[in-house]
UniProtKB/TrEMBL annotation:
Major location category of this protein: membrane
UniProt keyword list: Cell membrane, Membrane, Transmembrane, Transmembrane helix
Topological type in the membrane: Multi-pass membrane protein
Protein name per Swiss-Prot or TrEMBL: Cytochrome C oxidase subunit IV
TM region positions: 20-38, 50-70, 76-96
Classification of source organism: Bacteria, Pseudomonadati, Pseudomonadota, Gammaproteobacteria, Vibrionales
GO cellular component, one term: plasma membrane
Localization annotation: Cell membrane
Length: 115
């Protein structure tokens, strides 16, 4: 059985300083502000979507790593949670590429004379 000193020492090692959470909260606020500024300045096209997705991924990464405590988990658990969605994103990218190819092929085929 653990003594009171050992129990206190064990529990204090697992607590994170409140300043860490406040810094992450402030960084999330800044990233959200930057995300809103993308629309405020009427950015268009690939730049707009790239910035929105970048800010979204940064915010999601901060939330998962700090507030969901993934930063302090074992690497095997982190891989178990994050690798399947990444694989799905790769598959979605492949499907987008294939869809663009099929769309271009259909446009070409239907533009042929007699088609």
């Amino acid at each position: 059985m653990m003594s009171d000193a050992e129990l206190t020492q064990t529990t204090t090692k697992q607590q994170h300083p409140i300043s860490l959470y406040l810094k992450v909260w402030a960084l999330l606020f800044v990233l959200s502000t930057l995300s809103y500024l993308v629309d405020y300045f009427h950015l268009q096209g690939l730049l707009r979507w790239s910035l929105i997705v970048l800010f979204m991924l940064l915010k999601a990464g901060l939330i998962a790593s700090v507030f969901m405590h993934m930063r302090w988990e074992r690497l095997a658990l982190v891989y178990t949670i994050f690798i399947p969605p990444l694989v799905l994103l790769v598959l979605v990218g492949l499907m987008v590429s294939e869809a663009s190819y099929i769309f271009a092929l259909r446009e070409w085929f239907f533009s042929l004379p007699g088609g």
